[in-house]
Design goal:
Elements lengths: L8 E2 L6 E8 L9 E10 L2 E9 L8 H7 L3 H4 L5 H12 L4 E3 L2 H14 L9 E3 H8 L8 H8 L9 H22 L36 E5 L7 H10 L3 E2 L9 E4 L1 H8 L5 H11 L5 E4 H10 L3
Parallel strand pairs: 1-6, 2-5, 5-6, 7-8, 7-9, 9-10
Antiparallel strand pairs: 2-3, 3-4
Helix pairs in contact: 3-4, 5-7, 6-7
């Protein structure tokens, strides 16, 4: 995993911030590309500016990503390349606090690509609305944006488009702000061992000291392909030790399918396993499932409550 010197992950509701979202061809900054950028700037809780742009990637957009986002190769054909548009977006962001849902992924992409185009790394402090959801909406079966929006009564329009997700997240953010104000503050979260910690592979956690705000905690993981950094059993042990759940295959309960890096690269060229295809099918039906590389799995292990 990369040693990114990112800003602080804040548990608060700032009055001045950038609501941010990006769309990408996957979850790994080493292999995947940004195809859309969007941000809304708020000063003292009032919108003052917007930024929105498609991005022309170096490689063709996979049909699955097109089905998920609606972004086609034709739509990005005349869009600016990332090296041309990213500096403008970074200038728009400046040093402002960044807010977004599961924002750690977005910041990793911005951080790595900023370095590639010769900009300083993105070190803004940030607020992950998923962390706020864990504290204020504890009874949700999943804290994905669709589930949170439905729980809060927020209308979902233009989901999986960068500006659409910014607007959905902003509505959720303000509703949670009101909830926190009514409670007199943001509640603390207790880390608890769930009954799901025992998994199909008989790998059990070696600790009971879990970070319940980790992106791994309470999530169901499946693995496919050869891993570079761990054996399969070692990777599963990492999941169990973070309070996650291991599964033998891809099911309706799976939240993450982890592909070995070699398999992830092959998938970008169209070589997808049966597990991979099943995961894509479930995602397109609305399941909260993400297909990630081993590198991105390592990032998840390192997020620790982002």
């Amino acid at each position: 995993m990369k040693n990114r010197l990112k800003g602080k992950s804040l548990i608060q509701f700032p009055d001045s911030y950038i609501m941010l979202d990006i769309e990408t061809t996957g979850f790994d900054p080493d292999f995947d590309e940004i195809i859309e950028l969007a941000g809304i700037k708020y000063i003292e809780r009032k919108e003052v500016a917007r930024f929105e742009s498609l991005v022309r990637p170096e490689n063709r957009i996979d049909p699955y990503i097109t089905m998920l986002t609606g972004i086609t190769n034709e739509m990005v054909a005349d869009a600016p390349k990332l090296g041309d548009i990213l500096p403008q977006f970074l200038d728009f962001i400046g040093n402002t606090i960044i807010v977004g849902h599961n924002i750690g992924f977005d910041i990793n992409f911005l951080y790595d690509n900023a370095e590639r185009v010769g900009y300083p790394p993105v070190m803004n402090d940030f607020v992950n609305t998923m962390r706020l959801s864990h504290r204020l909406c504890k009874n949700l079966e999943s804290h994905g944006l669709e589930y949170l929006a439905d729980y809060l009564g927020v209308t979902m329009e233009n989901r999986h488009r960068a500006m659409g997700d910014c607007l959905i997240t902003e509505d959720c953010f303000e509703k949670m702000r009101s909830m926190a104000e009514a409670l007199g503050g943001i509640p603390r979260l207790e880390s608890e061992l769930t009954s799901h910690s025992a998994n199909a592979n008989k790998i059990v956690a070696e600790t009971t000291d879990f970070d319940s705000e980790s992106p791994i905690f309470g999530k169901v993981f499946a693995f496919t392909g050869a891993l570079e950094h761990y054996t399969r059993s070692e990777a599963m042990q990492k999941v169990a030790n973070a309070g996650g759940i291991n599964g033998n295959g891809v099911t309706r309960e799976t939240n993450y399918l982890v592909l070995g890096n070699t398999d992830y690269c092959a998938a970008l060229r169209g070589g997808k396993s049966a597990k991979h295809k099943k995961a894509e099918s479930l995602a397109l039906k609305g399941q909260d499932i993400k297909i990630i590389s081993e590198n991105t799995f390592l990032d998840l292990l390192d997020m620790k409550g982002e």
